[in-house]
Amino acid sequence: MTRNVNSAVSGATALAGTVWSLMTARKGLIIGASAAALAAVGGLGYAAGRRRAPTRGGGPLTRLTGGRI
Q: What's the CA angle centered on 10, arms 7 and 15, to 5 degrees?
């Protein structure tokens, strides 16, 4: 009887250790994938905004005079 209990406890401990390892690895994978997706979306948004943004020529004096100088 004691042998069966010990066997069941050690099996449950091994299973819990395996599950814990998978859970911690899964969190890391999810965090890494989320960071990569966020960086990709941010990079695409930045690239799209830079292409569509009007270019302002000149410095502060040109802006002050409305482009006459």
A: 120
pLDDT digits (tens, 9 = 90+) for 21-48: 877 778 888 888 899 999 999 888 887 7
Whether pTM exceeds 0.70: no
The domain locations on the chain are 2-51
**pLDDT at residue 62, rounded to an integer:** 79
From residue 30, how far is each of 22, 23, 37, 61 by CA, in Å? 12, 10, 10, 50
DSSP conformation class of 67: T
Exposure string of 34-47, with b = 16+ CB inside 10 Å and e = fewer, is eeeeeeeeeeeeee
